[in-house]
Specification:
The longest helix has 23 residues, at 97-119. The protein has ten helices and three strands; from the N terminus they run H-E-H-H-E-E-H-H-H-H-H-H-H. Strands 1-3-2 form a three-stranded antiparallel sheet. The mean pLDDT is 84. It is mainly alpha-helical and 226 residues long.
Length: 226
């Protein structure tokens, strides 16, 4: 039975994607390096320019390349956030996603505290204290308070100095930030400002004194409640 044209085209596009990935690795291309033109790639891969274009669009969606009008096609700086967002968006169709993602976030953040203590210097906690001070401003808008809450957690995890980890958790943070903002706008968000600030301040002190186990326990309660 002959392969239908749409299926054949999809197969060619997928093959071109893999060939392009191989080309990038084989030639040792790094972020900022330019790829050949669509026409040149079509000749190298022995496929049509339309197939190459589809393959390039796929790689751009994954955040592996970027097309710059009038300049060419370039290898993008490593950023797996796009890939992680695709995964989270697929999970979002499952009603259990919220609970499971919260558990996943808690596991990731508590595990990261060991690395935070190893990597962070005495002055690295200063920005966290600045974020707390901003969240203590009288009559602060609730949406601004939510933003600062997530900024605190994001910066805390940046102290791991692990870009891949920060990208992954950043996507999860965005998911919960958007969820909390939506709840707030619909009148369903309940935020204890005083407790949140107290937990953040205590977290810094525990990390300064390298009491990681107590910091982990506090973080679990802080994120999961109870």
């Amino acid at each position: 039975m002959p392969i239908r044209e749409p299926l054949r085209r999809m197969m060619l596009s997928q093959m071109a994607v893999e060939q392009l990935k191989t080309y990038i690795v084989k030639h040792g291309l790094k972020p900022g390096d330019r790829l050949p033109t669509e026409r040149e790639l079509a000749e190298k891969l022995n496929v049509s320019r339309s197939v190459v274009r589809e393959a390039l669009n796929h790689l751009e969606t994954l955040g592996l390349i970027v097309k710059r009008q009038g300049k060419g096609i370039f290898i993008e700086k490593q950023n797996l956030s796009v890939f992680f967002r695709h995964i989270v968006s697929m999970w979002d169709a499952d009603p259990k996603t919220g609970t499971q993602l919260l558990e996943f976030r808690t596991m990731l953040e508590t595990a990261a505290l060991d690395l935070v203590v190893e990597q962070a210097g005495k002055d690295d906690y200063g920005r966290l204290e600045t974020i707390i001070a901003r969240s203590e401003q009288p009559d602060i808008d609730i949406l601004e308070f939510i933003r600062l809450d997530f900024e605190f957690h994001r910066h805390l995890l940046e102290l791991t100095k692990n870009d891949l980890f920060v990208q992954l958790v950043g996507v999860i943070h965005d998911y919960f930030n958007n969820l909390q903002v939506e709840l707030c706008r619909n009148g369903g968000a309940v935020i204890n400002h005083g407790l949140t600030i107290r937990d953040h301040r205590t977290m810094i002190e525990l990390l300064r004194t390298k009491d990681v186990q107590a910091a982990k326990q506090l973080l679990r309660v802080h994120l999961l409640g109870g």
